[in-house]
Amino acid sequence: MVKAKIQWLKKYTKLEYLQLILKERQLHLGDPKDWLDKNDSKLIRLYSGASGEFEMRATCLAEAADRFHFWAIFGECEKGVCLWFDKASLLGDIRKDQSLIAENVQYLSSDGLRKLERRFVPFAKREQYQDEREFRVLRVKPTQHVAADKFEFSAFSLRRIYLNPWLSRIAAEREKTKISNLLGSEFRHVKVLQNRTLRQNSWIEAAKDALSTSF
Fold it and tell me: What digits encode the pLDDT tens for the residues 27-67?
């Protein structure tokens, strides 16, 4: 029997937040008013205003392969860490919370947005951003059971933790040890690794081979 391939949802955040995320098993839901992309921010607030009095909270995850700018912007370079979740498992966590909705983002032109079904409007983004392959989680109504700005995930949903590629090997090993000590028994299945985007030895070796040929 062939084992099903995991679909990943990746959350780029700051390393300093990791201890609390693991302790609480919760991800932060930010205020869209604070987002740098004001087109995206305004769209969420328009939907919120048309849907009720509750001001929505959101978090954005990526299905795309690693990009330099994901680390540079979302992880703030050497401050960053990336949590890899099993998509199917995390979707199960989200469905347990009736205050949440979640969908893959659709990347559209203005004309495409005008034709979009109302419920998908908060999951629309300008087509220039399609390389992100974003998956968005929104809290769309108040809840009395958990903090409005967080949502819970099961320990099993988290599978990998990647340190940012700016850390030296020594610093990375030191952080790996710290994180391993934080994981405890419920996260014992989680792999702690370092992203190597900035140090691709095979790429450098290929360049050396190219330069070694005579002109």
Answer: 999 998 888 888 888 999 888 888 776 788 999 999 988 88
Both tokens of 79, joined, read 């401050």
What percent of the residues of the chain are helix, what percent strand, and what percent coil, each to the nearest 5? 45, 25, 30
Question: Reading across the β-sheet that carries 100-104, which strands appear in turn?
Answer: 100-104, 134-139, 57-62, 8-14, 80-86, 158-163, 191-194
Count the Cβ atoms, other than its own, within 10 Å of residue 92.
14
pLDDT digits (tens, 9 = 90+) for 106-145: 999 999 999 999 999 999 999 998 888 999 999 988 766 6
Instruction: Give the global pTM.
Output: 0.88
Q: Terminal CA-to-CA distance of the chain, rounded, Å?
A: 52
83 DSSP β-pair partners: 11, 161
